[in-house]
Amino acid sequence: MKRSQTLVAAVALAATSLPLVAQQRAAVGEAVPDTTFPEFLNGDGRQKLSEFYGQPVVIDQWGTHCPPCVGTAVPNAIRHDHAHGEDGLVTILVESQGSNPAQLEHFLWERFPDNECFSCIGTFVPIPESAGIPFCGVIGVDGKLVWAGNPAAFPKDVEDAVEAELDKVRKGWGDSSDARKVRAALYGKGDFERAAATVAAMADGAEKTALQGEIEKRYAVKKNAIDVLRKAGRWVDAQDAAAALAKGVGKHETWATEAAELLAAFETDAAKAEIALDKKLDKILKTMRKGKLDRAPKDLEKLVERAGQSTVAPRASRMIAALAATNN
């Protein structure tokens, strides 16, 4: 699957999007209350902040009519995501100046065609309130807020905070060597089999129970992503996710058979047809990422005609609507 480079997730709220009731906000060093994001343009089924646990999350609040956002903060976030997405970084771009989903997607294709960050329209994010945008919150692997501020003014601070958290992804974290081993395997390497074996060898107790829960939750999130990606017409990403999960569980007695079945489901004739259509759409998207948007609507319309009832067709249709939208 995709995902990659280091800055990473910003949060700032426009006055018009503030909730009518008070909501909890975390200060630096505190656990960030869970929240649910609006549907991401390019998500993988994770909508709750807690579902990103074990990965550093950068939430970047920005706006399409904000020069510092468009000129500095968002380009930095995308660049960092490209560099570190595969290392575990999650970057969430929250547009907070009133765009609707089609307008946001149109703007991102027009100005930032290489964007692969999780992107959504404005929502409440439980970090310190800001007087303006851009505003960024860096949430650590353990769910605590490690930095908040203006990413355009302090890009080095964001980079340093993310680098420190990515080091925890690689080495693990926790108060015991067992916890660090489990988390390094689970989040750093995606090795469910090794993580489970380490937990199984631990003495019974609260720590063992908690770590086992982390493993099970992580497996459920990864498994759900395969189904979500498939239903969204992103069959190549779904197949890659299934392959990664099957490799990660290895010969685990509980999950190996299920993971193998998930992977085998991509070998049916129907699945192969969907994958072929998805690859055709990907070629169009690659052309769009080069800034060549003029011919894309016609190419997408042809694909929709050929796709029929395929799950890829609605995805292509959404792209047609986004390209026709404006930000006025």
State the major sheet.
3 strands, antiparallel
Low-pLDDT ranges: 1-21
What's the architecture of the largest domain, going by CATH? Answer: 3-Layer(aba) Sandwich
Oligomer: single chain
Q: What structural class is derived from the secondary structure elements? A: mainly alpha
How many distinct folded domains? 3
Strand content: 5-15%
Output the radius of gyration.
Answer: 20 Å
Strand order of the largest sheet: 1-4-5
CATH topology name of the largest domain: Glutaredoxin
Shape: flat
The CATH H-level homologous superfamily of the largest domain: Glutaredoxin
Count of alpha/pi helices: 11
| Percent helix | 40-55%
CATH class of the largest domain: Alpha Beta
SSE arrangement:
Blueprint (H helix, E strand, L loop, with lengths): L56 E6 L4 H18 L5 E6 L5 H11 L6 E4 L13 E5 L5 E5 L5 H17 L5 H12 L3 H9 L5 H26 L3 H15 L6 H9 L4 H21 L6 H12 L4 H13 L4
Parallel strand pairs: 2-3
Antiparallel strand pairs: 1-4, 4-5
Summary, kept brief:
The chain has about 325 residues and is mainly alpha-helical.
Molecular structure report:
By secondary structure, the protein is mainly alpha-helical. It folds into 3 domains: 155 residues, 3-Layer(aba) Sandwich (Glutaredoxin), CATH 3.40.30.10; 81 residues, no CATH class; 56 residues. Helix content is 50%, strand content 8%. It has a 3-stranded antiparallel sheet, covered by helices on one side. The protein has a two-stranded parallel sheet with strand order 2-3. Strand 4 and strand 5 form a beta hairpin. Helix 2 packs across helix 11, helix 5 packs antiparallel against helix 6 and helix 6 packs antiparallel against helix 7. The two termini are 34 Å apart.
